[in-house]
What does this fold into?
Amino acid sequence: MAKETKKGPLEFMPVADPTLLSADEIAQIELEAEQEVRAKAKDEAKAALKAKLVAKNRQTVGLDEPVEAVFIDLPLYCKQVLIDNVAYLQGVTYTVRASVAIGLREVIQRTWGHQSIIDGKSENYYRKQKAPAMSMATGAVTTTSNLLRA
It folds into this structure.
């Protein structure tokens, strides 16, 4: 019975006749093997980087995540919001990914909450009144305060 031996990943296959190859030829083969492995690793790194950049660009364009328009409305003490080192300036409407829009709205809400604490006024003091809307069917006038009470 012959014993079966499994070769590990770092073990080399024995050469049938070691005298057939010179030391220079063995060194050349080792160099070629190393270059082949490096080339394969480089190709894999390029493919991974390309996949990452494609995913980032798909998000930026709005293919993977919907985009929303957000108006930056901050109190007087704020001039901008920084998210991921991108400045969103006061009084400007930006079209951003939904996840960024959620973060921007949160920051805007918290800055107004901070302003109400500093001034000692209720949070409702800073809420903007929307233009009244009139129903043609009933003739009722609906404002923001009416909606909040309903």
About this structure: Residues 117 and 137 are 42 Å apart (CA to CA).
